[in-house]
Input
Amino acid sequence: MFKRSVMLAVALCLAIINSGVAVASKLSPERLNKDLTPYGAERAGNKSGTIPEWTGGLLTEDIPKSYVRGMHHPDPFEGSKKRFTITAQNMDQYENVLSAGLIKMLKRYPDTFYIPVYPTKRSASAPRWVYDNIYQNAKTAKLINNGNGIKGAYAGVAFPIPLDANGQVNPLKVLWNHITRWRGVFVKRNASEAVVQRNGSFALVTSAQEIDFVYYHKDGNEKQLDNRLLYYISQIKQPARLAGGAILVHDTIDRVRDPRKAWGYNAGQRRLRRAPNLAYDTPVASSDGIITADDVDIFNGAGDRYNWKLLGKKEMIIPYNNYKLDSNAITYEQMLKKGHVNPKFTRYELHRVWVIEGTLKDNQRHIYTKRTFYIDEDSWTIAMADQYDSQGELWRVSLSFLKNYYEVPVLWTALDVYHDLSSQRYYVAFLDNEEKTSLEFDDISPPSKYFKPAQLRRRSRR
Output
């Protein structure tokens, strides 16, 4: 009897030790050099071969020879042949790889909306120094302030291996990876936005935008951040009645501890005013109320009003490598159609995505009672989002049409499109097809005083 008890105790100890070793192995940063990519995705392809192995993404040698920095990007996958097309008539065959939002879009616009699916190209890539920082973050990054902030992370996704100490995936860490993902250091773009009405009519608002990703300053470090994430300036160029107006935003990392700061400049009044409440479900005026402040970038800001859970990692059809949609060979009239952008210019692929769901807490308010995010494993970008109303009905569908800006390199959006299913209108951000240049990236940012409210006032008055 004594021997049996001893053996059971030894077996239990060994099980605990082995379990601890297994968890430690899962959490090891060395996985980023082995079974995971430097960004934290599964390096291997899937069993069927429809998702290939990641072999580095788009690299310098993959850039089309015709490309000159600053021009619109030639499509490196121009010769790809379409695998199949999903329509309202055949979507039942593909239901297991479609989001609720895409299914709803097919049903809402059965005669005009379709999903062209191409071979999967795992084009996501980033500079070596970003990968090095991600490796360090894997060793030190932690959630703080009840998950509303992070510590021990800088210049890379915070949680490339988004597991808790017990080896379980933490959905908040997955969400933080979207917020801290690589999008460059300093970016300039001339772009338009538009609300496309139910009848297909639209009016453009064109602006010059500048984004300084303070979190990614090469010469900086976590101690210097002071809870800063980025600075953003947008100055309206057209139409004439709005020209000269501007907005300045100082985004923080932990927005519960230190809320976003924003200022708006009214050219007609020549006055700069503090915007007091540009967060959560505050409607974005330029979208005619179709999106909320935290819809920008598909999602941004604090996630503290929701309870988050992981729905799994799945193979799903998402927008990817959308070079044609961002081409200067097409006009806005050709692209912006009733109900949705013209599908013939879009490209979708099969990728593995993290699916997380946020359910509104009982003591909180927001116009969305539930949000489902589909996050690309290779870039940690929310590629699609489904937003539900107070009745639990799917209300709004957001799509980020991704592509690799291979001169950087960085996988980011070519176009963000937000559909309101009830009004059958949609809002489009980052239109630049009719601009002379695409996004301009720089590794050096202006001095911090450039993003002070007083500087914005002076520049806007010129």
